[in-house]
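Collaborator request, handled under Task 6.
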Amino acid sequence: MGNKEIDEVKIKNQIDFIKIYHSCLKQKKLYSIVCGIAFIMATVYVFSIPRYYTTEVRLAPEESSGSSSGSFGAIASFVKGKLGSSGSDDAIYPELYPDLFYSNEFVVKLFNIKVFTQKDTTAMRWADYLVTKERMPWWQMLQGAIMRQIKQIFKGKRQKQASREDIIDPFRLTFDQTGIAEAIRASVYCDVDKKTSVISIKSKAQDPVVSALVADSVMTHLKEFIFEYRTSKARVDVAYTEKILEEAHQKYEDCKKKYIDYAESHNDLYQPSYTTQMENLENEMQLAYDAYSQVNQQLQLAKAKVQERTPVFTTIQSATVPLFPAGPKRVKNILLFVLAAFAATTIYIYMTYNQQESAADEKTPKSPEKDQ
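Structure tokens returned to the collaborator:
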């Protein structure tokens, strides 16, 4: 292949933007139709999505033992040393808090959050608000209607479950309860900064007041859940020690009563056998008192352990009713739809132009080679 032929190939492979530009100008009608359809479809889609508001709260966990001072701090440190606690034996640490929202056990506790809207101050459960107040796009409403028709087919099973609707069992949720749980998971987002351990909780709702109430309530439920988890073993120890203390106290009282009764009934007798029996009863009473005192000390240590294990959270950003909706961004989405349609049309015209150029090259007869 000569240099001349190589130059011709390079020229053919170059993109002639001027010709493509003129080809695009000739397709104004096509652009108008495609972009017009995209604008209408985008408008219908965007305005079918209800506006929603978001609220964010932020809190940071602290070490509860660091807040202890004085004699209680010494007791907590003593308990920690006695029990060999390292402070890092938690199975649920801050990085795993977002995973709690995938747990039915945690989510079902959010069903009964009390909320009210900006226009109606009547309190209702969050689960009822999601079912009765939240609006859905038309395609989701159509999907829901289809699902309801399918459920009618299994009406018998549905009637059997009707008595269970008010009973929320995390192990076995009903069809409707499962839908509410999924709606809650879609409305709440939790994230933890791995560097600072700052916990961010965001809630989304179609009413600004509901959004703020949910964010604040979810933060409270998260604190309670972590408290229940971290102090569960220590609280069980306290309950068990209290039971043992009550038994030890009762045994001490019984021994003391026996000693007093025997002493009063044998007050004037000084025989060695009576004296020995008196000393035995006194020793039993003393042993019972020592056991009672020891258990009482263990109870105080167990209570100190509960306080030490109690998590402390500092609220960095509290819930505030948002003033403006967070989405959907209607103008932005419509522009993106139209620009995508414009770009797709341009690509179509460019491909069509290349095909036409290739067909024209194939039809052009090649000049015969001249003999040198």
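The cover message to the collaborator said: "Strands lie at 53-62, 114-115, 124-125, 188-192, 199-205, 312-317. Residues 65-88, 158-164 have pLDDT under 50 and may be disordered. Please let us know whether this matches your experimental observations."
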